[in-house]
Write a structure and sequence with these properties.
By secondary structure, the chain is of the alpha/beta class. It is built from 29 helices and 20 strands. Helix 16 links the parallel strand 14 and strand 15. The structure holds (2S,3S)-3-hydroxy-2-methylbutanoyl-COA.
Length: 694
């Protein structure tokens, strides 16, 4: 075994030269890996004792892509194109042995090989679009030549991987290897030599491009098919253009076109924001004061108290992760209704072809319903998801504390109540934590994990690991009113309500935030969630909001009642401005003595976004969030903040905190002390710094 570089070795195993990459954790294509692969393949070509080459990886995965930490730094030779060129022009067949996830530059390297084999659990894909980029090492030119244009467009502009079976079907791999992958790849390489199979250079194959050559409409049809989902994103369009180049240009020209389009994206703001977010999402998994090796509690069973919308949705996350759930309701009728909704949700997914019937059956087989809390005695974790009443929650937690085994975690899904106080209702406050799911709980990826003053490190570490297991993205926050996401949302809502009194049209406020990149504006969102939710909370707190209360008093709760801030035609979810609401707003403004005026789009945007940023600065000062990037993760996954803007605080740094600070001062003069800049924001602005410098 010869070490070519610190990350790549070469060894002749009989008549096959094996080049092995070992760069934990994901064999990213750092400069040492690139140099090593190039040197390793050159060594095999020069080694007369071998007649074929296998490229394999140690660890949990084949190459998972370029080393994203190298982005933005001066390029270091050899570049990936050069490495792939050495492989593809090899005089001996090179076989890629794929396990884990061959992604991005990893798949592009494998496409430079003459053959690819994989084990059954392998996945292959080109996810660069999710980083705001496109495959920059020939992927947009080689993949179409293997799988054809339609599938290449889907894989490249969508960024999702395919499994080994599908890869075999479409010719991306030649064989699925059972048993030891490297041995299987060596045997395959020997077969290629023994059978005199050709050195397949994908760059020379053009037959799969013919369909698109005769039907260029494929590209515009595809553009239309992704228009809604890729709204405002730059990378998908560049992906499509690069793939168009594979059809309209010779290979070498197509590579050049790919490079141009890649550099356009790499130098743009969106890819920087999406790369920032890639690492932010992973950083949020780490709790600064909880050691990485903190022991975890085994979570093999879960109990859920409440089979309503949230309880049912939460249960589905556990069931899909293969974790048995015991769900509790107060009456058999409520229990049957709740379980019926879970079943109906799965059945809908099955009917859309997004879930197999046997998977649904498996999930339902793991679900047990009961009306007795005592049936939760042996579960490892309980999540309470009943209505937002502190007395009732404290009573339930007192009972759970007496019923559940020692060491069971008692979690609450509350979004508004003080979890420290809930913990004090038990004798195990160190096992009490908030697990704040976002509705619909089986869909939204964010899980806001709320630590109390007493939540133990083990419980926090266990719940962070559990989040990933049930397909959620966790962020740890502290106890305060609204935690992080809703506390910032409340600031936006307050300003939106003031803006419509001052003269901004309801639909203009929504339009401005929609055009900014939010999935919908505050009023459309309220109509979707139900205006009565906020109404109940305001009533509980003795708070009023003239317009919001007025529409609720008319029973206009939103989409569920057919009318809310907007009118909805029967069976339609399209919001239509409603003169009745306009009259309510005008009257409320008159009663408040407000002289209505034109409000610019710029003022709407600043007055909705900047108070959120100011509140986030307070959240950081109070230690409710540990990092600015955690707050960005919360807003992207909890509220649909456009990922190409990185998150509210990444956006604030992009705008410049000094500019935001000055605008806050201007709004303070016009609208009062609520606009006083947070001390942290003022400090950073005056020092010419950003949240990234914290
Ligand atoms: N570069 C650098 N570090 C990476 C990395 C990468 N490509 N991928 C993952 N990591 C780090 C990650 O930050 C984390 O670090 C650790 O590895 C484990 O990751 C030329 C230009 C492979 C599916 O987009 O999708 O190729 O937190 O927690 O859940 O055309 O990582 O431990 O310190 O995510 O098991 C294209 C990105 C790059 C794949 C594994 N490739 N990675 O998931 O572990 S651009 C990608 C992933 C490119 C070429 C272009 C996932 C994974 P830490 P993890 P995981």
């Amino acid at each position: 075994m010869t070490a070519i570089t610190d990350f790549v070795s070469y060894e002749a195993q009989g008549s096959v030269g094996v080049v092995t990459v070992n760069n934990p954790p994901v064999n990213a294509l750092s400069v040492g890996v690139r140099a090593g692969i190039k040197g390793g393949v050159e060594a095999a070509i020069a080694d007369d004792s071998v007649s074929a080459v296998v490229l394999a990886c140690e660890g949990r995965t084949f190459i998972a892509g370029a080393d994203i930490t190298e982005f933005g730094k001066p390029p270091m030779e050899p570049g990936l194109h050069e490495v792939i060129g050495v492989i593809e022009s090899s005089s001996k067949p090179v076989v890629a042995a794929i396990h884990g996830t061959a992604l991005g530059g990893g798949l592009e390297t494998a496409l430079g090989c003459h053959y690819r084999v994989a084990n059954g659990t392998a996945k292959v894909g080109l996810p660069e679009v999710k980083l705001g980029l496109l495959p920059g090492a020939g992927g947009t030119q080689r993949l179409p030549r293997v799988v054809g244009i339609p599938m290449a467009l889907t894989m490249i502009a969508g960024g999702n991987p395919i499994g080994a079976k599908k890869a075999l079907e479409v010719g991306l791999i030649s064989e699925i290897i059972e048993g030891d992958l490297t041995e299987g790849a060596i045997a395959f390489a020997k077969k290629v030599v023994a059978e005199g199979r050709p050195l397949v250079k994908i760059s020379d194959q053009n037959d799969k491009l013919e369909e698109a050559k005769s039907n260029p409409a494929i590209f515009d049809d595809f553009r239309k098919s992704i228009a809604r989902k890729s709204r405002n994103f730059e990378a998908p369009e560049n992906c499509i253009k690069a793939v168009e180049g594979s059809v309209n240009l010779p290979f070498a020209e197509g590579l050049k076109r790919e490079r141009e389009l890649f550099m356009e994206l790499m130098q743009g703001e969106q890819s920087k924001a999406q790369q920032y977010f890639f690492f932010s999402e992973r950083l949020a998994n780490k709790i600064p004061d909880v050691p990485k090796d903190t022991p975890l509690i085994d979570i093999n069973t879960a109990g859920i108290v409440g089979a309503g919308t949230m309880g049912g949705g939460i249960a589905m996350n556990f069931l899909q992760a293969g974790i048995p759930v015991t769900i509790v309701e107060t009456t058999q009728e409520a229990l049957d209704k709740g379980i019926g909704i879970i079943e109906a949700n799965y059945a809908a997914t099955v009917s859309k072809g997004r879930m197999k019937q046997e998977a649904m059956d498996k999930c339902m087989s793991l679900l047990t319903g009961t009306t007795s809390l005592e049936d939760l005695a042996d579960v490892d974790i309980v999540i309470e998801a009943i209505f937002e009443n502190m007395d009732v929650k404290k009573e339930i937690f007192g009972k759970l504390d007496a019923i559940c085994k020692d060491g069971a975690i008692l979690a609450t899904n509350t979004s508004t109540l003080d979890i420290d106080e809930i913990g004090e209702a038990t004798k195990r406050p160190e096992y009490v934590i908030g697990l704040h799911f976002f509705s619909p709980a089986n869909v939204m990826k964010l899980l806001e994990e709320v630590r109390t003053k007493k939540t133990s490190a083990t419980v926090m570490a266990t719940c962070m690991a559990l989040a990933k297991r049930i397909g959620k993205v966790p962020a740890m926050v502290g106890v305060c009113d609204g935690f992080v996401g809703n506390r910032m949302l409340a600031q936006r809502g307050e300003q939106a309500n003031k803006l419509i009194l001052e003269g901004a049209k309801l639909e203009d406020v929504d339009r401005v935030l929609f055009d900014f990149g939010m999935p919908m504006g505050p009023f459309a969102m309220s109509d979707l969630a139900g205006n009565d939710v906020g109404w109940r909370i305001r009533q509980g707190r003795g708070v009023t909001s003239p317009v919001a209360d007025a529409i609720c008093e008319l029973g206009r709760f939103g989409q569920k009642t057919g009318d809310g801030y907007y009118h909805y035609e029967k069976g339609s979810r399209t919001p239509q401005p409603d003169p009745i609401v306009e009259d309510i707003i005008v009257k409320a403004a008159r009663d408040a003595g407000i002289n209505r005026r034109e409000v610019s789009d710029e003022e709407i945007l600043k007055r909705c976004i900047y108070p959120m940023i100011n509140e986030a600065a307070k959240i950081l000062e109070e230690g409710i969030a540990a990092r600015a990037s955690d707050i960005d993760v919360i807003w992207v996954y909890g509220y649909g903040w456009p990922i190409y803007r990185g998150g509210p605080l990444r956006y604030a740094d992009h705008i410049g905190l000094e500019n935001i600070y000055n605008d806050l001062l201007k709004f303070k003069e016009e609208h009062g002390d609520e606009w006083t800049p947070a001390p942290l924001l003022e400090k950073l602005a005056k020092e010419g710094k950003g949240f990234k410098d914290l």
